[in-house]
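Input record, target 12 of the design panel.
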């Protein structure tokens, strides 16, 4: 509520000051406007409230699609809804309604985390993570994957962030995670306790508060795969390779079916 009052008051003040100054001194107006804007963003980043699961999902989807489908970004409400309810690469999987996503957008816009643009027949939405939180794009990529897929190891994050940012090695990932955890304005991620049988620690974001104890201690290591033989990061890489092979196999089958059809041969 406090953020909305500040934002409404500030917007009116912008209009008043900008109208008077722009008529006489456009350059002075722009400088003054940018200073005030930066002050508001700094204030927001230091007093950011705890976000809901859906709010972090909305932010994560916007940041993800900005890199993976830049031609469709900013997103419409329908595209954003589809991204939030996506079945793959999401943990947990949710079933949000259009009204719920719109409410999350309104809440995030009040915190300056969302920017809204009007064009064509629909309103489009983009994220403002880097400017509000004062973090580089590499850190945004890590936060995005944590918001979309839940706690992960540094190795898993490096693999899952590949389409958003290509980290040179795991050390680079760990370096940016450490920066996020040690921010002067407050940590945005934390390293979770080692899970039973695991060889690597996982990381979680703190935009929704500290993860519950049962979530932090839950095990994800399959008993069928001894932890001494393979790490969680290596398991994630294997899963990614299997998914790629399944996709290529499907394309090959489609090609064979097409050849059968063109040659007039019935597949048996």
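The sequence produced for target 12 reads:
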């Amino acid at each position: 509520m406090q953020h909305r009052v500040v934002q409404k008051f500030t917007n009116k003040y912008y209009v008043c000051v900008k109208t008077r100054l722009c008529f006489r001194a456009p350059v002075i107006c722009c400088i003054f406007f940018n200073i005030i804007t930066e002050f508001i963003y700094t204030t927001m980043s230091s007093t950011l409230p705890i976000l809901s699961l859906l709010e972090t999902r909305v932010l994560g989807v916007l940041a993800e699609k900005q890199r993976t489908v830049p031609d469709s970004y900013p997103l419409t409400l329908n595209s954003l809804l589809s991204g939030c309810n996506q079945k793959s690469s999401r943990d947990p999987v949710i079933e949000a309604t259009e009204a719920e996503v719109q409410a999350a957008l309104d809440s995030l816009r009040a915190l300056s985390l969302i920017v809204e643009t009007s064009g064509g027949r629909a309103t489009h939405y983009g994220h403002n993570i880097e400017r509000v939180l004062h973090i580089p794009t590499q850190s945004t990529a890590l936060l995005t994957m944590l918001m979309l897929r839940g706690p992960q190891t540094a190795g898993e994050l490096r693999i899952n962030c590949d389409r958003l940012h290509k980290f040179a090695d795991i050390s680079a990932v760990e370096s940016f995670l450490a920066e996020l955890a040690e921010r002067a304005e407050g940590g945005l991620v934390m390293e979770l306790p080692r899970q039973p049988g695991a060889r690597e620690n996982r990381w979680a974001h703190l935009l929704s508060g500290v993860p519950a104890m049962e979530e932090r201690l839950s095990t994800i290591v399959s008993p069928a795969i001894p932890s001494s033989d393979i790490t969680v990061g290596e398991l994630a890489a294997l899963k990614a390779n299997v998914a790629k092979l399944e996709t290529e196999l499907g394309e090959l089958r489609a090609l064979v079916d097409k050849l059968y059809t063109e040659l007039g041969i019935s597949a048996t």
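Residues 2-46 form one domain.
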